[in-house]
Amino acid sequence: MNRRLFLCSAASGLLALSGRSPAGQAPSIALILKSMKNEFFVLMAEGARRHHARRTADYTLTVDGVQEETDTRGQEVLIHKALTRRADVLIIVPADSTTMVPPLLKAMAAGVLVINMDNKLDDRTLAGAGVNIPFVGPSNFMGARSVAEYVARQLKPGSKAGLIEGAPGSINAKARSDGFREALRAADIAVAGMRWGYWDTLRGKQAALELIDAAPGLAALLCGNDNMAIGAAQAVQSRNLTGKILIGGYDNIPAIRPLLASRKVIATADQHPELQAAYAIDLALNAVRQRLLQPDMPSIVQTPVQLVTKA
């Protein structure tokens, strides 16, 4: 299908959106998340369900997720299931910022309103397709920068830090690393290296060990999520370097809080996954109520993010 034909088909599907649920019937919202092994997405799912529990008469909700952070194929299957169930709105945290765009375009062509949450879809890919998919989430750059600024204040200028980044193809991963880098550069802290941790504790530990070995005298490790920060803390402890290498994370999941209390991890960022879910659902309900089409939706709905430390 050529681009012009696709867009015409998508527009036709969007025009049919308001008639997808019969008049008087509550709209159906499908929420598709990333790894349900990650406490962050468990909290996001719980936030969505609490929102629905308060407004059961206003909409129906299904919550699905894959097991691995990068399982794009699994998310494609879940998108197909949402279309089969004739969902009115699809809210997704994409496993990849580029790869997931084509199946979402198919959902739009089928008349489903699509909202992107937490991990932003690639702007260039969306622009190339000529579509607007609103993003609901925080500034990952600003949240990560606040973590790195806090860590940098504990270090001497000229110290060395390592970065443990989430996964290739993730806008979140890049934005957080960019925030880390800006704060380190401003504090005259050198980036000694970067490794992929793929959002996972074990892989985060391995990444940390590689960075420690590659950069003797490393003073800090900044991690793109708390799972990797937990792995980094395990790596640091295994080398008897606890307290000598400072660790920053991101997400403020429950599992990180004992490490914050003990200062094995000194900072993280809370981007309130439950609020992200509530904001996205409210955006969806407002769009359905006002009969908005995909191009009429706001491009970005900002949600809060804040620095969290022991203090």
Automatic annotation (TrEMBL):
Gene3D superfamilies, per this entry?
A: 3.40.50.2300
Q: Could you tell me which InterPro entries the record lists for this protein?
A: Peripla_BP_I (IPR028082), SBP_2_dom (IPR025997)
Query: Start and end of every Periplasmic binding protein domain?
Result: 29-288
| GO molecular function ontology, one term from the record | carbohydrate binding
**Keywords on record:** Signal
Highest taxon of the source?
Bacteria
Q: Which residues form the signal peptide?
A: 1-23
Q: Where in the cell is it found?
A: Cell envelope
GO terms for CC? Answer: cell envelope
The protein's matches in PANTHER family, at most eight in alphabetical order, are given as: D-ALLOSE-BINDING PERIPLASMIC PROTEIN-RELATED (PTHR46847:SF1)
UniProt similarity note: Belongs to the bacterial solute-binding protein 2 family.
Query: What is this protein called in UniProt?
Result: Ribose ABC transporter substrate-binding protein
User: What is the scientific name of the source organism?
Assistant: Paludibacterium paludis
Read off the lineage from the record.
Bacteria, Pseudomonadati, Pseudomonadota, Betaproteobacteria, Neisseriales
